[in-house]
Structures are given as C-alpha cells and as structure tokens.
Write a structure and sequence with these properties.
8 helices; mainly alpha; 200 residues; 2% strand; 48% helix
Length: 200
C-alpha cells in the first residue's frame, strides 16, 4: 500500500488558528523554534554518544535540520523530570542514562577500539542490537540491564521526536488542536482542520 504523505506547513497553519488554545500554541511554537543547546545534565562525551544513538534509533537523514532529540532528553534529566515510575531493574533515570551511555562506549571500544559516536552506522546498529538483546560486551552491562536500558532510550527518543510539531506533521496528526469544536469524531470521519493524506 502506498505511504501517506501530508502537505507541508499544515501544522504551522493550524497552530495559528483558533483551533489551538494559547498555552498549547506557545508550547509547540517553542519546540518548533528550539535550537541545539549546550548539555546541562550530560558531559560532552555522554552527549555525543546520546546524539549518535538517537540518530540511529530515529534516523532523520532526509531532514536538513534534524529534530533535536538528545537535547530534549538532556533538558528533562537536568530538570529532574520523569514519568513517575521506573523498572526495578534500573536505577533512577539520570543514573541509568549515564551508565547506559558509558556502556555503549565500552561496547564500542571492546568491539572496535573507538567510542560509539565514532563508529559507522552499521557498527552502531550492531551494538544497539546487542544491547537490546542483552548480549552487549562491557563491564556496565554486568550490572545494568541492556534490554531495559534500550527500551527506556527508545521510548524517550520516540516520545521526544513525536512531541515535535514537524514530526506530528509527518503523520498527519492534528490532535494538538485542543480548543472545543471537534465534531467529526466517528470512525473514518475527518475534520476540515485535519490534513488530508496523499498516497504516493
């Protein structure tokens, strides 16, 4: 089946309409205009590893200006924010991320004598796969569940990617239009405010 595509700039047009409440508009416009920031929680080496891992989990090679995923994770951890729960196999989020990123570098060094961020995409994918499968090399993985860390990293990267208006535009999502007024809410109904897909 052909992949759906959606017209560009639909999110910006909808954001500036009465269909979006002012607080939601302000939050999404801030995300649209966000620029890469110096790390607040991670050090430079950890941030390089996180950026490289996020780039493999959610490739954005078609984007001239990729959505900044790693900075959003760094900002959340610096602010001490979380989702209110964690696996008992993992330490608190900040520690889990620091140890997991160190583990990626240990695995990369053991396999290729280089940090994770310096590896090519195939090598990075292989290491991420071994972490996901609980088979990664390195001292960190003796005391940190690779499978659980991978799950947390992937979930955080995905959440931060799809919180961005341009990622929402890719999938034709208009649910951020949170002002009252939705009428067409049954199956296979489409509001006029929702973008219509082109199948290519």
């Amino acid at each position: 089946m052909p992949n759906p595509t959606y017209p560009p700039n639909t999110v910006r047009a909808l954001l500036h309409s009465d269909a979006v409440t002012p607080p939601t508009r302000a939050a999404l416009l801030e995300r649209l205009d966000a620029q890469p920031q110096a790390p607040q929680f991670f050090d430079a080496a950890e941030m390089a590893t996180l950026r490289a891992a996020c780039a493999r989990l959610i490739p954005q090679c078609e984007r001239e200006n990729p959505i900044e995923i790693a900075s959003s994770i760094d900002e959340r951890l610096a602010a001490g924010k979380g989702d209110g729960w964690r696996y008992d196999a993992l330490p608190p989020d900040g520690e889990a991320f620091r140890r997991g990123l160190r583990g990626l570098d240990q695995s990369a060094d053991g396999e290729h004598n280089a940090p994770f961020a310096a590896l090519n995409e195939t090598q990075q994918d292989a290491i991420l796969g071994s972490v996901q499968n609980g088979a990664a090399r390195g001292e960190v993985w003796q005391t940190l569940s690779g499978a659980r860390f991978f799950e947390e990293l992937l979930a955080d990267a995905t959440e931060n990617y799809y919180a961005h208006p341009l990622a929402q535009e890719e999938i034709g999502y208009a649910g951020f239009a949170d002002a009252p007024g939705w009428v067409e809410i049954e199956l296979n109904q489409r509001e006029a405010r929702e973008p219509e897909a082109n199948h290519v």
